Amino acid sequence: MSILNTYELIVTDHEEGERLDVVLASNIEDLSRSYIQKLIEKSSIEINGCIEKSKKYKVKEQDRIVVHIPEPERLEIDGENIPLEIVYEDDDLVVVNKAKGMVVHPAVGNYTGTMVNALLFHCKNLSTINGVIRPGIVHRIDKDTSGLLVSAKNDRAHASLGEQFKAHSIKRIYNAITYGNIKNDSGTVEMPIGRHPTNRLKMAVTDMNSKKAITHYKVIERYGNFTFIEARLETGRTHQIRVHMAYIHHPLLGDRVYGPKKPKYHIEGQILHARVLGFIHPSTGNYMEFDSDLPYHFREAMGKVKA
After folding, report:
1. 39: helix, coil or strand?
2. Does residue 214 contact residue 168 with C-beta atoms inside 8 Å?
3. At CA 239, angle to CA 234 and CA 242, rounded to 5?
């Protein structure tokens, strides 16, 4: 078997006693639980140096888990008739309001049901800069993050938007619910982000092989043990808001990766919404800005923390 990628993690005390497939699915965001179960069946997962073939295995603290991802059997990505909330579209780009739970682009073991599959069906043509797996994708948000994304229909538009992201001139404002009562009305977290030094599945504030990361936040409303915030990205690192808010001891509600392993109110997936997106149009040169209402799952979580 040819190996494409390898993930490695050490089980924490909070995860002890959980099923192997559950722990891996919560830590490796791009892999579905069903695909992880297939990897277990194919002897692609080791625990403490030994092949583990039971998806029901209950992990123990300090278990060393290694996941071997095989080379994909195919690279053709097909369009699928999946509903999309398109808020704007022209010959150069399309702006989508992504639902929570939708993966942005295909990854190993997950070639269907993504936003890219839906876009290929709807748009027919997308930019080719990011290859077969990620056509049209200029930026992404996590599976359980909802909100606005812009995708490019041609390479010229993709290059223009890509330069704006590189220059940090894209306007991106998020809303989130955090654990704890944030004392200051506003603040800035300016700490570098890179791969976690011991858990390569996660990102972390670190000086090792990291990049500059800046998040500005503002308190909108306090709910005692929770805070409703607005966060503006000055840079765009992987999991940036999630990592920075956890760093200041206010992880996002529902975030099992950077917050409590057993989320309050049984809310699964971070309560984070990409609400505002603004950029210069690649062809017209005009500034465009879009605003997305808070989705139902966000408002439902807000109702629970207010109660």
Report:
1. helix
2. no
3. 90
Q: In angstroms, rounded to a whole number, what is the distance separating the alpha carbons of residues 137 and 66? A: 29
Question: pLDDT of 42-84, one tens digit each?
Answer: 888 999 999 998 888 999 999 999 988 776 555 567 888 999 9
Q: Which residues of 277-307 are buried (b: 16+ CB within 10 A; e: fewer)?
A: bbbbebeeeeeeebebebbebbeebbeebee
Nearest 10 degrees: Cα torsion 100, 148, 29, 8: -160
Q: Which residues contact 299 (CB under 8 A, 6 or more apart)?
A: none
Q: Which residues are catalytic?
A: 142
| pLDDT, tens digit (0-9, with 9 covering 90-100), for 173-212 | 999 999 999 999 999 999 999 988 877 678 999 998 899 9
Q: Which two tokens stand for residue 124?
A: 């027919």
| Predicted TM-score (pTM) of this structure | 0.80
Using only C-alpha atoms, what is the Rg of the chain?
20
Domains and CATH numbers, the chain: 3-70 (3.10.290.10), 75-167 (3.30.2350.10), 172-274+299-306 (3.30.2350.10)
Question: Which of 26, 5, 97 is CA-nearest to residue 262?
Answer: 26
For the chain, how many helices (H) and strands (E)? 6, 15
Residue type, 113: G
Cα distance between residue 45 and residue 49, in whole Å: 9
